[in-house]
Amino acid sequence: MVLMDNIQEKMHALFKNNGVFIKVNKDSKIFLEGERAKEIYYIKTGAISISQETENGKELTIRICGPDSIIGEGSLFCNLTYFSMTAKVLEPSTLYVLSRKSLEHLLVEQPHLMVEYMKWLQTENLKYQSRLRDLVLNGKKGALFSTLIRLSNTYGKPLENEAIFIDFPLTNSEIANLCATSREMINRMLNDLKKHHILSFEKGYITILNLQYLKNEIACENCPLQICRID
After folding, report:
1. pLDDT digits (tens, 9 = 90+) for 5-15
2. Please, which residues have CB within 8 angstroms of residue 204's CB and are 6 or more apart in sequence?
């Protein structure tokens, strides 16, 4: 969950002043699906994926979270005491850790911050619903196209001729997990898009050459940018 600008400083200060600062290595797990949810995490630096295992054993990556994101927030102010997803470190990261009970108490003491937090949580729910809609309704190709659009909105840097460089390295397996499909299918679809000059890729980095094509193919509704994101 990426923090909105108007509360970013306050939430950062909240975790910094009351939490514990930790460093985590690449490929380590912050928490596991089914594990008791006792803590909330604020990402200071790095990147962490939030994923869920499907019934057939495949991994579905729900989000890729960067700096100023909070993870593990789903257990706050509810009876849910177990994590429903797994958090895996994609690159060396630093975080502030705060117990769930402590954060609940701090928010209750600051009603204005509680209101902002709930607005922000609703935005996160809309992002999650939008992602699931695209995965279910648009098929495998649509899942890839919508994922590329979300990646461009989250990590994209504009280049000449309206090209967009996605400044975040991803393997084809990681893209497949974002699309709930196989690496082999992603390989074929990416190569086809490259062949038709829709995108290019090198050493894990993708450059989208024709974003409008991707939007047209899935009848993109041009959702607000705070919703159409991958984090």
Report:
1. 566 777 888 89
2. 169, 170, 171
